[in-house]
């Protein structure tokens, strides 16, 4: 498994989720366990370039995959545009949903650029607040930072 | 979870061979199965990973589509042919789950997902589906979001899939390792053996879903009523397609979600509609005919009104 | 949005922003990985009764299981709070109570073994349903934290009878659950067997340390609680919760660090919640709208273990003028978990009922609801007679009305349609006390003209870390970049919890005093306590105020309610950081929207607990639920507060929101819903009757 550009070979309990592998075995605690049942999105990472809930992904089922986590978003010392936008727009409060929001937003922006439809528009989607809201609804923020998250994602997506 | 062995199948033949192991289950994206395993509801001893098998969408000779069992929900929803020819299917998928879940979930996994009844999901509570004969606490307990059609004293749960409702409206055929069968026959009603959601046998593998050609499916849509604006299961949903000529309904396809143990193909409503003018009046009559057979529970009678209004609205939008 | 000084009023980015955005910020179970074992809890499946036997043999037989703790073998605790007497007794007092803990090498093994612990119970019949006529309702001695239970002024009953206009309405709310994004979790490490470090997800490392030490029966000097980052709390992490104690006990038994985390499902039972309530509000008024009588009676629940009486009607004592007034609280002990703080305890549910009832009165009077409130604006605190240190409610209402274009509103309910949608707007007032508690703080000079500040404050998402940095920088008259602030560690002295919206005021005052002492002396270090300052405050009535405006659309065909616009206008003294303050106001209003339309802990009386115990079934707002939302504030200068002139703002956002939504739904539909959440089934039934 390749995680943030580094190859790993591990022996795992088949029951280990990708989330627990990242957090407990690789010390990458960025991805968070908010519910462990795919209901909150705090564990969102990119698997082979697509956003997915790491809590429901069994590590063994993704052997051979390329995983990107929040720790891999920033390039060396430079923050990713999404990270910079989050800070500037105060798109977080407690920060616990933040890594999942960032990975999900990164995946979502790719999906939108590739013309993938959503429940808001079925063809040629355009980046807008209503698109962001719908496409990001799988990431819950109990602190209620949604309106700032939308602004940050819109800015980073331009 | 109890410990289990894992095997990844390269093709259907290998999957079937691996599935002969005791207490084996097929693993797609895992978005429901892993969830249920973590809850202790499902406890397979062997997981046969079939997610990478049959992951293509192909044209069929008759002019329909063959959707591989391993096609991810997001890819199915985004497929240009699906969007153009069966928009109800794309729309249903896009209104279900979340972007992340759709990227993992597979066609077969989506069909086989199990009810989200809170009693079913909680192994410390009785549930005829999970523990046959133990009772159905939902009957007298919390059931606001459960069935108004086809339920039995054994089980009042609903099927949670949006995709399945669209496929039901489209007369989809499910291909398995043993047979082909109409999707409408895949899921059971809970009259007896509520523990069996589908007619599939142990070790039977869904390989594909075939969509017959249905030219008027271009005029179709999926409407979903839910408590919050996104990322929620349907309270009531409707997949509808209308074949109109000169303001008369030549043919119609209607399937309701959120109302029964399986996608509810509204055949009585379809019969009423055929040959009738495409007016709110006809639509209302069709809806009321279908819903006349509804048997609400103590707290979910409101669904009858919602379903009726949803049918009238959606058909009016299509007309 | 005035910049008050070089640092106060500046919209600084959150100090820990980079850490949170890069995944570097460490939360409770993320500090240690070497040698850490994992604990998983086992919950009771009965609501009342006794444990007859615990058979851990199957669990212990699983390779990797280190121990199973239960009432049969757990270390003895000296818990003063029965909810903290974990694994001490055979009694079961609510369904979901923790009755055992499995400790194992890995999370997977712990969770497997958790299901293998066999417990036999003697079950007794349980009583879990709150009713206004419950025979065991009683009058608690005090309501949270120490208010009078009942108050009465004048002769409210006579005044109600005599009033030309009156309303007598009862509002009901279910249990609400805090559901912070980070589940409650802690990692405990014993060093040499007698000093304990707990990495805890807590709203107060200092009080947590005291409580943990007390319960474990050890010297607080031997306990350290560390919590630099906390993934939300909203009140549920104000008290010590099971993970810290279980981890400590387990670590003692197995001789290595133990991490304990609750699952999302478990959080619904053992981390506190807002009690369900039945609130009867009676208002009497003259034809000009002046209130002649206000009566607010509250019925709520607590557990059989501990008494927690939410101070729901206390807000009615100071909101509006009236010569006759009564407020009462009645409690019943049920076989349920102990309720606890959830964002704005007291004010939040109390104002829901009061502000909705007031709206009903306005309609009966045919008077604009904003005008009604203005006409009843008190000159002094109606209960204590103290002057308000500052009260800008009227200004908030007027400002909000202008921004929301309230003057264009046709007050006729059900008059505004947009296709299949009915549209309505509603308004409600909010308030929250501006409290302050004593705290310690340290300020130290560092090389290079820099400063170190240490205070056992907690930033649970409030932005406290940033606000405190600004306060220190302001006092020291340096740029914020020269200040290094360390929080979230009980080693930094005593400090109150992040709660009661008192954090910034409390810690900030101590920080200010420490910085002042440093500047005024030649010392390199100043360590102070703000106790004297806090105690010497003059008798004013100190509250923040606000007004909330909501627009709703109700789908006449499906009953779905959507909220296209929410506006909050607040007056809270000095706003230390406009960026983080706005986030707090909006966060509170977002939670208020959930309270009004989505959230409900669904109790199944047959089992005795909440059955919809996860985030797929307990609906909190998602992105798509929040459309246009904004918070603004009135400049308010109040010299009677604290050195910053600030009032707490973390909770006021939720306070008026549910009433504003309820009022807007009435305006849209003509139907007055008196039960939350106003979900579509309730709306459809109101239109069609239940069949």
Provide the residue-averaged pLDDT of chain B.
97
Give the CATH class of one domain in chain B. Answer: Alpha Beta
Mean pLDDT rating of chain C: 97
Assigned CATH superfamily of the largest domain in chain C: Aldehyde oxidase/xanthine dehydrogenase, molybdopterin binding domain
Give the low-pLDDT segments of chain B: none
The CATH class label of the largest domain in chain C is Alpha Beta
Spatial arrangement of strands, main beta sheet of chain B: 4-5-8-6-7
Amino- and carboxy-terminal Cα gap of chain B? 50 Å
DSSP summary: helix tally of chain C: 17
- What does the main sheet of chain B amount to? 5 strands, antiparallel
What is the CATH superfamily label of one domain in chain B? CO dehydrogenase flavoprotein, C-terminal domain
- Number of separate strands of chain B: 12
Q: Unreliable segments of chain C (pLDDT under 50, ≥5 consecutive)?
A: none
Rg for CA atoms of chain C: 25 Å
Give the oligomer, counting copies of the same chain as homo and different chains as hetero: heterotrimer
Summed up, the domain count of chain C is 4
* CATH third-level topology of one domain in chain B: Enolase-like, domain 1
- Biggest sheet overview of chain C: 7 strands, mixed
Q: What spatial order of strands do you see in the largest sheet of chain C?
A: 3-5-1-14-11-12-13
> How does CATH name the architecture of one domain in chain B?
2-Layer Sandwich
Give the secondary structure arrangement, pairings included.
The complex is a heterotrimer of chains A (158), B (319) and C (691).
Chain A: E1 2-3, E2 6-7, H1 18-25, E3 44-47, E4 50-53, E5 66-68, H2 81-89, H3 98-113, H4 129-135, H5 146-157
Helix pairs in contact in A: 2-5
Chain B: E1 5-8, H1 12-18, E2 24-27, H2 33-39, E3 46-49, E4 57-59, E5 65-68, H3 73-78, H4 80-85, H5 87-94, H6 99-104, H7 107-112, H8 118-121, H9 163-169, E6 173-176, E7 180-182, E8 206-211, E9 220-225, E10 236-245, E11 248-257, E12 264-265, H10 267-273, H11 280-291, H12 302-318
Parallel strand pairs in B: 1-3, 2-3
Antiparallel strand pairs in B: 4-5, 5-8, 6-7, 6-8, 9-10, 10-11, 11-12
Chain C: H1 17-22, E1 37-43, E2 49-55, H2 57-60, E3 65-70, E4 91-92, E5 98-104, H3 107-114, E6 118-123, E7 142-143, E8 147-148, E9 151-153, H4 156-162, E10 165-173, E11 185-191, E12 195-200, H5 205-216, E13 223-226, H6 242-254, E14 258-261, H7 264-270, E15 277-285, E16 291-302, E17 324-333, H8 347-365, H9 369-375, E18 388-390, H10 393-404, E19 417-418, E20 421-433, E21 440-446, E22 450-454, H11 464-476, E23 483-486, H12 503-520, E24 525-529, H13 531-535, E25 541-555, E26 561-571, H14 578-597, E27 603-604, E28 609-610, E29 628-633, H15 652-655, H16 657-669, H17 680-688
Parallel strand pairs in C: 1-14, 12-13, 16-17, 18-25, 22-23, 26-29
Antiparallel strand pairs in C: 1-5, 2-4, 2-6, 3-5, 7-8, 9-17, 10-15, 11-12, 11-14, 15-16, 19-20, 20-25, 21-22, 21-24, 25-26, 27-28
């Amino acid at each position: 498994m390749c995680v943030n550009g580094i190859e790993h070979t591990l022996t795992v309990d088949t029951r280990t989720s990708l989330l627990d592998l990242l957090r407990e075995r690789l010390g990458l605690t960025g991805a968070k366990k908010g519910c462990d049942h795919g209901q909150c999105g705090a564990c969102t990472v990119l698997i082979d370039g697509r956003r997915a809930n790491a809590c429901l992904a069994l590590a063994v089922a993704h052997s051979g995959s390329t995983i990107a986590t929040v720790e891999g978003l920033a390039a060396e010392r430079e923050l990713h545009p999404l990270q910079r936008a989050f800070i500037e727009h105060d798109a977080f409060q407690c920060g616990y949903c933040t890594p999942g929001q960032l990975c999900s937003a990164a995946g979502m922006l790719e999906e939108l650029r590739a013309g993938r439809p959503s429940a808001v528009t079925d063809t040629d989607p355009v980046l807008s607040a209503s698109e962001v809201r719908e496409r990001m609804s799988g990431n819950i923020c109990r602190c209620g930072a949604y309106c700032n998250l939308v602004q940050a994602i819109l800015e980073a997506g331009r | 979870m109890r410990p289990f062995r894992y095997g990844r199948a390269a093709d259907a033949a290998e999957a079937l061979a691996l599935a002969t192991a005791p207490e084996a289950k097929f693993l797609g994206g895992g978005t429901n199965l892993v969830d249920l395993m973590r809850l202790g509801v499902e406890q397979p001893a062997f997981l046969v990973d079939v997610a990478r098998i049959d992951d293509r969408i192909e044209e069929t000779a008759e002019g329909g589509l063959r959707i591989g069992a391993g096609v991810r929900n997001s890819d199915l929803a985004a497929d240009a042919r699906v969007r153009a020819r069966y928009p109800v299917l794309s729309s249903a998928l896009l209104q279900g789950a979340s972007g992340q879940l759709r990227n993992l979930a597979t066609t077969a996994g989506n069909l086989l997902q199990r009810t989200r009844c809170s009693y079913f999901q909680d192994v410390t509570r009785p549930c005829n589906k999970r523990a046959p004969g133990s009772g159905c606490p939902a009957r007298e307990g919390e059931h606001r979001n459960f069935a108004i059609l086809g339920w039995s004293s054994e089980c009042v749960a609903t099927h949670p899939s949006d995709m399945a409702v669209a496929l039901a409206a489209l007369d989809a055929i499910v291909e398995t390792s043993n047979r082909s069968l109409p999707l409408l026959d895949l899921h059971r009603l809970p009259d007896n053996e509520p523990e069996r959601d589908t007619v599939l046998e142990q070790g039977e593998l869904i390989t594909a879903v075939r969509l017959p050609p249905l030219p008027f499916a271009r005029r179709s849509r999926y409407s979903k009523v839910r408590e919050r604006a996104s990322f929620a299961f349907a309270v009531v949903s409707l997949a509808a397609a209308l074949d109109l000529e000169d303001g008369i309904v030549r043919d119609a396809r209607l399937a309701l979600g959120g109302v029964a143990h399986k996608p509810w193909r509204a055949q009585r409503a379809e019969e009423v509609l055929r040959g009738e003018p495409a007016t709110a009046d006809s639509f209302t009559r069709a809806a009321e005919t279908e819903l006349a057979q509804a048997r609400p529970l103590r707290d979910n009678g409101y669904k009858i009104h919602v379903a009726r209004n949803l049918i009238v609205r959606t058909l009016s939008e299509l007309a | 949005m005035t910049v008050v000084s070089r640092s106060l009023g500046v919209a600084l980015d959150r100090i820990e922003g980079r850490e949170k955005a890069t995944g570097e910020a460490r939360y409770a179970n993320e500090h240690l990985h070497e040698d850490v074992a994992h604990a998983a809890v086992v919950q009771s499946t009965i609501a009342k009764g006794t444990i007859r036997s615990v058979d851990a043999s199957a669990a212990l037989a699983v390779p990797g299981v280190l121990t199973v703790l239960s009432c049969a073998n757990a270390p003895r605790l000296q818990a003063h709070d029965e909810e903290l007497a974990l694994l001490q007794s055979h009694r079961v007092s609510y369904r979901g109570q923790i009755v055992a803990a499995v400790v194992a090498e890995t999370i997977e093994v712990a969770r497997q073994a958790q299901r293998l612990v066999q417990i036999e119970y003697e079950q007794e019949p349980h009583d879990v349903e709150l009713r206004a006529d419950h025979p065991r309702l009683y009058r608690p001695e005090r309501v949270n934290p120490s208010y009078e239970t009942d108050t009465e002024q004048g002769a409210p009953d006579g005044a109600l009878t005599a009033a030309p206009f009156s309303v007598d309405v009862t509002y009901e709310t279910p249990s609400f659950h805090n559901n912070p994004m980070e589940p409650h979790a802690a990692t405990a490490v014993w060093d040499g067997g007698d000093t304990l470090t707990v990495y805890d997800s807590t709203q107060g490392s200092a009080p947590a340390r005291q409580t943990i030490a007390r319960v474990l029966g050890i010297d607080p000097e031997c306990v350290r609680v560390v919590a630099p980052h906390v993934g939300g709390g909203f009140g549920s992490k104000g008290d010590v919760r099971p993970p810290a104690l279980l981890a400590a006990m387990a670590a003692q038994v197995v001789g290595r660090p133990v991490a304990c985390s609750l699952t999302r499902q478990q959080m619904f039972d053992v981390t506190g919640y807002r009690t369900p309530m039945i609130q009867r509000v009676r208002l009497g008024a003259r034809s000009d709208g002046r209130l002649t009588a206000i009566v607010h009676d509250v019925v709520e629940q607590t557990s059989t273990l501990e008494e927690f009486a939410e101070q729901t009607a206390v807000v009615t004592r100071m909101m509006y003028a009236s010569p006759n007034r009564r407020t009462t609280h009645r409690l019943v002990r049920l076989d349920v978990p102990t309720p606890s703080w959830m964002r704005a305890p007291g004010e939040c549910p109390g104002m829901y009922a009061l502000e909705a009832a007031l709206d009903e009165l306005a309609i009966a009077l045919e008077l604009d609801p904003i005008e009604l409130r203005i006409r009843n604006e008190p000159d002094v605190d109606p209960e204590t007679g103290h002057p308000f240190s500052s009260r800008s409610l009227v200004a908030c209402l007027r400002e909000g009305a202008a921004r929301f274009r309230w003057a264009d509103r046709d007050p006729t309910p059900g008059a505004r349609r947009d296709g299949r949608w009915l549209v309505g707007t509603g308004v409600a007032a909010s308030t929250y006390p501006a409290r302050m508690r004593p705290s310690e703080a340290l300020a130290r000079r560092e090389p290079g003209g820099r400063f170190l500040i240490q205070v056992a404050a907690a930033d649970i998402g409030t932005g406290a870390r940033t606000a405190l940095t600004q306060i220190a920088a302001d006092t020291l008259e340096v740029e914020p970049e020269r200040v290094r602030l360390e929080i979230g560690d009980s080693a930094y002295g005593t400090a109150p919890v992040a709660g009661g919206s008192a954090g910034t005021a409390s810690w900030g005052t101590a920080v200010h005093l420490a910085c002042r002492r440093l500047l005024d002396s030649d010392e390199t270090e100043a360590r102070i306590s703000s106790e004297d300052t806090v105690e010497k405050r003059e008798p004013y009535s100190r509250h923040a105020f606000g007004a909330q405006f909501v627009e709703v659309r109700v789908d006449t065909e499906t009953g779905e309610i959507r909220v296209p616009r929410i506006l909050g206008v607040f007056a809270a003294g000095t706003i230390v950081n406009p960026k983080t303050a706005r986030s707090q106001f909006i966060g509170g209003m977002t939670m208020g929207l959930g309270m009004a339309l989505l959230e409900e802990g669904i109790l199944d009386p047959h089992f005795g607990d909440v059955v919809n115990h996860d985030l797929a079934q307990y609906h909190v707002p998602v992105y798509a639920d929040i459309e246009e939302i904004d918070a603004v504030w009135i400049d308010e200068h109040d010299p009677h507060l604290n050195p910053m002139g600030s009032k707490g703002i973390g909770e006021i956002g939720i306070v008026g929101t549910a009433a504003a939504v309820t009022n807007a739904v009435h305006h849209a539909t003509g139907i007055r819903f008196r039960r939350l959440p106003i979900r579509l089934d309730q709306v459809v039934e109101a239109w069609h009757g239940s069949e």
